[in-house]
Design brief:
The protein is α/β, with parallel strands linked by helices. The chain is built from 21 helices and 31 strands. β28 and β29 form a beta hairpin. The longest helix has 17 residues. The protein starts with a helix and ends with a strand. The chain binds adenosine-5'-monophosphate-propyl ester.
Length: about 650
C-alpha cells in the first residue's frame, strides 16, 4: 500500500455517544481503561478469574519474544467452563442455543442438555481412542453438533481443527495432513440456499490421500445417500448409547485448544495454534465487555460460521463461558427469502447482533423493505467484524437495523489474535462511523512508519501490537521459524498484523485493509499466491497473477491474469475461463473462485522478475495504469490493456 493511500482518508466528523441509559447499565464503564493502564497484568489476572480454575496459576505471563505463555501453572477445562459450571450453579435450564435449520427445523438446547450431549460425545471419542493432545478435524455444517464436537475435543484436552465446510476436498486433505489428525468429524451434508450440499463425499475424496485418520464420525443431517467405508461410524450409533456423565480432567493453561488454518502470503495455509487459559480469558472478557452481555435477558446472535475464528471465539467459547443464550442458524440469509435474518431476529427477540460488513452491504442492496417487514425492536447492540466497514454501511446499519437506538461496535481482530483487540466499548465510546476507535483495555497497539516508529495523529502507517496479550496465537503449527518470520521480522520487537491503519486527529484508529498479498473477500482471507498456484496447477495455464480489486459488495473481488501454455489445446474464451474458475473452486473451495479471469500474453514484471501487482490492480479496477517505468518491458501494460479478453461471471 502506498503512503498516498494511507493519507487519503476523508475526515469523518460525526460521532455517536451511547445513550445515558446504556452508559448507566453498561458492563464496562469508563474507568476500566485507567484500571488496565495502572497494572496491565493485574487487570488480566482479574479477567482470568471469570473462569473456573482447578489450580490457580503461579505466574501471569512468561514473555520470551515472540513466544508467550499465560497463567502458568494454572489448570482448567474449557468444556467445564462452558457447561458444567452453569449447570452446577443452577443455570442448567437456561437456553444455550435456539437452533434454526435452513429448512425451518428447530431445536432448543439448554445448558443441561448441551452438557449431556457433550459428555456423550466425549465418551464416544474416548471409545474411538482419542486422548489429550490428539488432533481432530471437524468439517461440518452450522448445526449444534459442530459446537458439541468442539467442546467434546476440548473436554478431553484434544485439539480441534475446524475446516470450513465450503473448503474443497484438497484443502481439507492438506489440513488433515498438516495437523496429522486421527479423526474426522463430519456430516452427510447440510442445507444451503434451499438444497442439501454434500460433505461426506468431500471427506471420502480427501481421505484417498495419505493420512493417519482412523475413523470418520458422521452426523446424519440431510439423509442424503453416502458411500460407507470401514472407517465410517454414524454419530447417532456411537454417541447416543453413551453415558451422559463424564468427569473432566483439568489441563495445563498452555494445553493446546485448537488449530485453525488461515491464509497467509504463501500458497500454504498457516496452522494458527491457540492454547487454553489465556485464550478463554480474553474471549470471555471481550464478549462480556464489548457485547455488554446480560446473560439473563439478552439473546445474542453471531452470524459467523464455526469454520472461522469468529465462530470459535464468539459462538462457542466466549458466549458459552458467559452463559449466553444464542441463536444458531444453518443457512444463507436469502433462503427462503431475503428477510430470513430479520424474521429470526423477530422470532427469537435477538438483542445483540454480530455480523460482517459484506452482509450489511448486501442487505443495503436488497433494500429496506426486508428489514422493515420485521419487528427489530428487540435489538440493543450491533457488532461488525471481518473487514473495514464503510461509513455509509455503518450509518445504514445504525439507522435501518438499529433504529438509531443501538451502539455499533466495529471490532478489529484476527485468527492470530484469538479475540477482539480494537473496538469501542458500547457504554463508554462515542463512536465514529467506520472507525474501530481504540484498543481495548489491557491491549496495546501502535501505528508505525516504515522504520517502525510510531506516527502521530492524522498520519497513516502499519498497525502493530507492542505488548503480548492473553489470547495471542502460540505459533504456527510445527513451523516456529515461519511464525517468527511472518509476524515478528518486519519490525523489531513488534507484532505486525498485516493491516494498514490511520490515526485521525483525535487518535481514533481507521483500518485500511491488508498491506500484504492477502485478499479479503466477504471477510474471508484468501492469499493471492494460493489462488495463483491453484491456477497454474491447471494444464492450460503457464503463469498467473492474482490481485484483490475493490468490490462494492464483497470488499475485494479476486481478479486473475493468466498466460496460457503454448502447444496445449485449451478450450477457448468463455469455456476456458469457466474451466479455470471451477478448477480454483475444486482446488481451494468456491469462496476462492476468481470474479474475473483475464487471458493475457505477458505479465508486468520488474527487471528482477517480480510481478507488479499494483499495475494489475489498476487494470482490474478500471483505472488509468500508474507509473510503469520500472518494468522490464514498458510495453506490457499497453498490451494487457489493449488485448484483454475478459471473462466475468456472477455466481
Ligand atoms: O485485515 C483485517 C480484517 O481481517 C483480517 C483478519 O482476518 P481473519 O483472521 O480471517 O479474522 C477475521 C475475523 C476476526 C485482519 O487482518 N479485519 C478483521 N476485522 C476487521 C478487519 N478490518 C477492518 N476492520 C475490522 N473490524
Amino acid at each position: 500500500m502506498s503512503s498516498e493511500s494511507f493519507e487519503n482518508l476523508s475526515y469523518e466528523d460525526r460521532t455517536f455517544p451511547p445513550s445515558d441509559s446504556f452508559v448507566k447499565n453498561a458492563n464496562a464503564k469508563s474507568d476500566i481503561y485507567q484500571e488496565a493502564d495502572a497494572d496491565r497484568l493485574a487487570f488480566w489476572e482479574k479477567q482470568a478469574n471469570r473462569l473456573h480454575w482447578d489450580t490457580k496459576w503461579s505466574q501471569v505471563v512468561d514473555w520470551q519474544l515472540p513466544f508467550a505463555k499465560w497463567f502458568i501453572g494454572g489448570k482448567l477445562n474449557a468444556s467445564y467452563n462452558c457447561l458444567d459450571r452453569h449447570v452446577l450453579e443452577g443455570r442448567g435450564d437456561r437456553v444455550a442455543f435456539h437452533f434454526e435449520g435452513e429448512p425451518g427445523d428447530t431445536q432448543t438446547i439448554t445448558y443441561k442438555q448441551l452438557l449431556s450431549e457433550v459428555c456423550k460425545t466425549t465418551n464416544a471419542l474416548i471409545e474411538l481412542g482419542i486422548k489429550q493432545g490428539d488432533r481432530v478435524a471437524i468439517y461440518m455444517p452450522m448445526i449444534p453438533q459442530a459446537a458439541i464436537a468442539m467442546l467434546a475435543c476440548a473436554r478431553l484436552g484434544a485439539m480441534h481443527s475446524v475446516v470450513f465446510g465450503g473448503f474443497s476436498a484438497d484443502s481439507l486433505l492438506s489440513r488433515i495432513q498438516d495437523a496429522d489428525a486421527s479423526l474426522v468429524i463430519t456430516a452427510d451434508g447440510g442445507y444451503r440456499k434451499g438444497s442439501a450440499f454434500a460433505l461426506k463425499t468431500a471427506v471420502d475424496e480427501a481421505l484417498k490421500g495419505e493420512t493417519n485418520v482412523k475413523n470418520v464420525l458422521v452426523v446424519k443431517r440431510t439423509g442424503q445417500e453416502v458411500r460407507w467405508g470401514e472407517k465410517d461410524i454414524w454419530w447417532h450409533e456411537i454417541v447416543d448409547k453413551q453415558s451422559d456423565q463424564h468427569s473432566p480432567e483439568f489441563f495445563d493453561s498452555e494445553n493446546g485448544l485448537f488449530i485453525l488454518y488461515t491464509s497467509g502470503t504463501t500458497a500454504k495455509p498457516k496452522g494458527i495454534f491457540h492454547t487454553t487459559g489465556g485464550y478463554l480469558t480474553q474471549a470471555a472478557f471481550t464478549h462480556h465487555a464489548v457485547f455488554d452481555l446480560k446473560a439473563e435477558s439478552d439473546v445474542y446472535w453471531c452470524t459467523a460460521d464455526i469454520g472461522w475464528i469468529t465462530g470459535h471465539s464468539y459462538v462457542v467459547y466466549g458466549p458459552l463461558i458467559n452463559g449466553a443464550t444464542q441463536v444458531m442458524y444453518e443457512g444463507t440469509p436469502d433462503t427462503p427469502t431475503k428477510g430470513r435474518i430479520f424474521e429470526l431476529i423477530e422470532k427469537y427477540k435477538v438483542s445483540v447482533l454480530y455480523t460482517a460488513p459484506t452482509l450489511i452491504r448486501t442487505w443495503m442492496k436488497w433494500g429496506d423493505e426486508y428489514p422493515n417487514k420485521s419487528d427489530l425492536s428487540s435489538l440493543r447492540l450491533l457488532g461488525s467484524v471481518g473487514e473495514p466497514i464503510n461509513p455509509e454501511a455503518w450509518m445504514w446499519y445504525r439507522e435501518v437495523i438499529g433504529n438509531n437506538n443501538c451502539p455499533i461496535v466495529d471490532t478489529w481482530w484476527q485468527t492470530e489474535t484469538g479475540a477482539i483487540m480494537i473496538s469501542p466499548l458500547p457504554g463508554v465510546t462515542a463512536t465514529k462511523p467506520g472507525s474501530a476507535m481504540k484498543p481495548l483495555p489491557g491491549i496495546s497497539t501502535q501505528v508505525v512508519d516504515d522504520e517502525g516508529k510510531a506516527v502521530g495523529n492524522g498520519r497513516g502507517g502499519y498497525l502493530v501490537l507492542n505488548q503480548p496479550w492473553p489470547s495471542m496465537m502460540r505459533g504456527i503449527w510445527k513451523e516456529p521459524e515461519r511464525y517468527k518470520e511472518t509476524y515478528w521480522s518486519r519490525f523489531n520487537n513488534l507484532y505486525f498484523a498485516g493491516d494498514g491503519a490511520k490515526l485521525d486527529k483525535d487518535g481514533a484508529i481507521w483500518l485500511l485493509g491488508r498491506v500484504d498479498d492477502v485478499m479479503n473477500v466477504s471477510g474471508h482471507r484468501i492469499s493471492t499466491t494460493e489462488v495463483e498456484s491453484a491456477l497454474v496447477s491447471h494444464e492450460a495455464v503457464a503463469e498467473a497473477a492474482v490481485v484483490g480489486a475493490n468490490d462494492e459488495m464483497t470488499g475485494q473481488g479476486i481478479v486473475a491474469f493468466v498466460i496460457l501454455r503454448g502447444g496445449i489445446a485449451a478450450a477457448s474464451g468463455e469455456v476456458l475461463v469457466k474451466q479455470l474458475r471451477d478448477h480454483v473452486a475444486k482446488e481451494i473451495g468456491p469462496i476462492a473462485k476468481p470474479r474475473q479471469i483475464m487471458v493475457v500474453a505477458e505479465l508486468p514484471k520488474t527487471r528482477s522478475g517480480k510481478i507488479m501487482r499494483r499495475l494489475l490492480r489498476d487494470v482490474a479496477e478500471n483505472r488509468a495504469v500508474g507509473d510503469s517505468t520500472t518494468l522490464a518491458d514498458p510495453n506490457v501494460m499497453k498490451l494487457i490493456s489493449e488485448g484483454l479478453k475478459s471473462g466475468k461471471s456472477e455466481d
